[in-house]
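Duplicate of #3305? Posting structure anyway:
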């Protein structure tokens, strides 16, 4: 089935009014023909017996045929999803741009609230430490003065801690713990918390063709078939 839609762009992020979309490959005669041929070749592969070089040649011919059919189907697939991918990219870019100011405003506001919360907590800690220090000095002087306090012991005012939840008529904002981490000494981290860099090891194995030695790693060759279509 084909339908008209707004699925192409003009390079400026605006959608054009018309496009042809193919949405039902089961009605596409070429797709169905490729599929039926694939089913036939699968059945033949299941029954195939390879015992001679001639059998290998026959199998190679089928692999070349399979490769061509797969490429044709992949190309067809691309024809079907191409307009959708283009339209989806345009939609994503448009809505990302539309939502960006909201995300930025949210981030800025949260950071300013967090900064104020940290400031109040720091001021509280400073005031509490100042009172502890003053009381300690008073106690030590009293000890040296036969138990009589000779310094001012009235504590300074400690700022009120911010409430855990700020409530308004339209909603509320509450603090939630988010535990994070950072490495202080990599040598002390237990082995079970490490993962193998498979991408790096694979690159080294392929580049050195198994000649480089990595302690604890066994390199081996696992040959596979490379199918090439003969050029006419």
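Output from current build:
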């Amino acid at each position: 089935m084909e339908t008209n839609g707004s699925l192409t762009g003009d390079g400026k992020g605006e959608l054009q009014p018309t496009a042809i979309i193919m949405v039902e490959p089961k009605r596409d005669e070429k797709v169905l023909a490729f599929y039926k041929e694939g089913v036939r070749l699968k059945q033949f592969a299941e029954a195939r017996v390879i015992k001679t070089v001639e059998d290998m040649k026959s199998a190679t011919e089928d692999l070349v045929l399979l490769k061509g059919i797969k490429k044709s189907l992949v190309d067809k697939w691309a024809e079907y999803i191409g307009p959708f991918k283009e339209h989806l990219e345009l939609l994503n870019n448009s809505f990302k741009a539309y939502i960006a100011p909201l995300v930025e405003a949210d981030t800025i506001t949260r950071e300013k609230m967090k900064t104020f919360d940290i400031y109040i907590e720091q001021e509280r800690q400073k005031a509490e430490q100042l009172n502890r220090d003053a009381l300690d000095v008073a106690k030590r002087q009293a000890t040296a003065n036969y138990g009589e306090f000779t310094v001012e012991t009235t504590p300074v005012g400690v700022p009120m801690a911010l409430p855990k939840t700020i409530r308004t008529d339209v909603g509320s904002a509450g603090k939630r713990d988010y535990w994070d981490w950072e490495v202080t000494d990599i040598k002390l981290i237990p082995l079970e918390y490490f993962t193998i860099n498979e991408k790096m090891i694979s690159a080294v194995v392929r580049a050195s063709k198994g000649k480089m030695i990595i302690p604890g790693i066994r390199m081996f060759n696992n040959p596979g078939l490379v199918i090439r279509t003969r050029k006419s």
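Confirmed duplicate; merging threads. The beta strands are 2-4, 20-22, 165-167, 172-174. The longest strand covers residues 2-4.
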